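Chapter summary example.
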Amino acid sequence: MRVKLLVIYIIILTTFSLNARNQSKENAWSLLLKDVKIGYIYSLKYDALLPKPRFGKELKKLDGQTITIKGFFLPLDLTGDLFVISYNPMSTCFFCTGTGLQSIIELNVLPEHLKKFKRLRTDNYFQVKGKLRLNADTSEHLIYILDEVEFVQLIK
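The structure predicted for these 156 residues follows.
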């Protein structure tokens, strides 16, 4: 009898643990926006204050995980090769309104998906899939980077 109860208990705990992990992946924006504290440090190299994020425990669990996320498309350069997905549209961008670096993700698009990204326009609402990388050390990149990015769908 005790063995049966122990097995049932282990199954229930495993199920809750897997559901919690899937919940975190599905609600990535909630963690990206809230489970980080951004401080600033002075850089002699750039003679400026640069962001220094401290990621929370729950967010660290997503580091290196493949996530699917929806957001607004923002091109970053004239060549059309640098892209960002944003929690907010351009009219309420992170820089202008102070919503913060935690509301944008740098996208490293897979070559076979690049044409789809070049067809997008600013503020298109879309969905992508990629491997999340938390960046606390390199000031040349955003604090969130999505690698191996695949275009999933244009929503509007």
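To summarize the output: The longest helix spans residues 2-26.
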